[in-house]
């Protein structure tokens, strides 16, 4: 009897140890998953956003500080991110897409056929640039008939600075500086990021980062933003703020700088040294970062002068932790989320990115 009692006590201790260890392992797995998902989401967004406005060797007139005369290629309207290429875009529409490479919304109204089941109180981010590699070279996607491509010229005698279209409506014949070797042809990249309120099945309650890419449809006939695919699960909050370079470098007599003005040629503070352009910005955001909302949407003047971006990502564990209650609040820029008062653990990731392809063009020695 004594031996049986002692055995039962030891067995009970081992069972308790096993249960506690299993619980600790599950919590550790949840924590690791939360951290990995958050890092993956922020790194994925960073990797795309930092290339915003990359168009090979092409530089807009309004950012070309060596250009004499008034810029002729400034965008005239905020582009529609979900406009299909069922018919070739007009020259001005193409300019608008090239020169407004980043857009932010807080609703799905601008593209309700692509942004589906959006998580409440989250942003939608649109990023545009040329593919980083040359079509069909190395590991880059093959040059595919019917897809949208961008080619820029480096030849001083080329009368056209860029080609933007498909093989059906554009002949890609621009050249390198030797004016005989063709420049690289790059696929047009447009990605829409948003948070869906479920992962696999509607109602499963696992918020998920989604991405829609601009590409040919499955039939190979229509160029448009395709149905979004799940990228990272457990992403519950997403906010984006933009740093706008709308004033030039401060100088004596103008301690806050002067406004950007694309309706005039470059005005140099000192035409001999050309170190300060007084009407083209300086590459650095001016004032506080701004949020684009339905009540106060970002204007064309703001979007074409974005030189920095702040990303806020709130990641949530996929499973609730027993005995835990989340009573904290989370600050995503000007937005406060929580307390959620549930059993899910959360963490905020924040990243501030300079857009070198836009900001770098505005800097002077």
Quick structural summary:
Helix content is 19%, strand content 23%.
Describe the 3D structure.
With 365 residues, the chain is of the alpha+beta class. It has one domain. Helix content is 19%, strand content 23%. It has helices at residues 2-49, 91-99, 300-303, 356-362; strands spanning 102-105, 124-130, 149-152, 162-165, 185-196, 208-216, 223-225, 229-233, 235-244, 306-316, 330-332, 335-337, 346-354. The strands form 3 sheets. Strands 1, 2, 3, 4, 5, 6, 7 and 8 form an 8-stranded antiparallel beta sheet that branches. It has a 3-stranded antiparallel beta sheet with strand order 9-10-13. It has a two-stranded antiparallel ribbon with strand order 11-12. A hairpin with a 6-residue loop joins strand 6 (208-216) and strand 7. The longest helix has 48 residues, at 2-49. It is elongated and about 100 Å long.
Keywords:
single chain; alpha+beta; 4 helices; 19% helix; eight-stranded antiparallel beta sheet; three-stranded antiparallel beta sheet; 365 residues
Query: What structural class do helix, strand and pairing data support?
Result: alpha+beta
The helix/strand order is HHEEEEEEEEEHEEEEH
Residues in helix, %: 10-25%
Strand content: 15-25%
How many β strands by DSSP? 13
Q: What kind of sheet is the major sheet?
A: 8 strands, antiparallel
Calculate the mean pLDDT score and round it: 92
In DSSP terms, counting alpha (H) and pi (I) runs of 4 or more, how many helices? 4
Number of structural units classed as domains: 1
**Oligomeric state as shown:** single chain
Using the CA coordinates, give the radius of gyration. 26 Å
Give the CA-based shape.
Answer: elongated
Low-confidence stretches: none
Distance between the termini: 91 Å
């Amino acid at each position: 009897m004594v031996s049986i009692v002692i055995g039962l006590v030891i067995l009970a201790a081992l069972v308790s140890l096993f249960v506690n260890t299993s619980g600790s392992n599950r919590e550790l797995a949840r924590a690791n998953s939360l951290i990995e998902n958050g890092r993956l989401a922020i790194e994925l967004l960073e990797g795309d956003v930092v290339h915003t406005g990359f168009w090979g060797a092409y530089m807009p007139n309004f950012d070309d500080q060596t250009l004499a005369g008034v810029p002729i290629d400034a965008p005239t309207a905020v582009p529609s991110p979900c406009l299909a290429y069922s018919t070739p875009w007009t020259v001005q529409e193409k300019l608008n897409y090239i020169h407004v490479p980043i857009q932010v919304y807080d609703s799905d109204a601008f593209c309700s056929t692509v942004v589906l089941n959006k998580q409440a109180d989250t942003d939608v981010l649109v990023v545009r640039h040329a593919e980083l590699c040359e079509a069909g070279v190395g590991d880059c996607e093959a040059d595919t008939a019917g897809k949208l491509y961008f080619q820029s010229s480096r030849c001083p005698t080329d009368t056209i600075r860029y080609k933007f279209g498909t093989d059906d409506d554009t002949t890609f014949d621009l050249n390198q500086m030797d004016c005989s070797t063709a420049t690289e042809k790059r696929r047009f990249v447009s990605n829409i990021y948003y948070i869906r309120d479920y992962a696999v099945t509607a109602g499963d309650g696992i918020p998920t980062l989604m991405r829609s890419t601009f590409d040919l449809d499955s039939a190979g006939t229509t160029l448009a933003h395709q149905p979004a695919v799940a990228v990272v699960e457990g992403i519950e909050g997403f906010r984006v703020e933009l740093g706008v370079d709308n004033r030039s470098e401060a100088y004596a007599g103008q301690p806050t700088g002067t406004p950007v003005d694309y309706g005039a040629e470059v005005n140099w503070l000192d035409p001999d040294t050309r170190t300060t352009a007084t009407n083209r910005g300086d590459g650095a955001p001016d004032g506080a970062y701004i949020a684009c909302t339905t009540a106060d949407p970002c204007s064309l003047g703001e979007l074409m002068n974005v030189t920095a971006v702040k990303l806020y990502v709130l990641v949530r564990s996929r499973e609730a932790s027993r005995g835990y209650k989340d009573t904290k609040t989370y600050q995503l820029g000007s937005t406060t989320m929580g307390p959620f008062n549930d059993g899910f653990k959360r963490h905020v990731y924040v990243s501030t990115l300079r857009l070198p392809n836009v900001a770098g063009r505005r800097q002077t020695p």
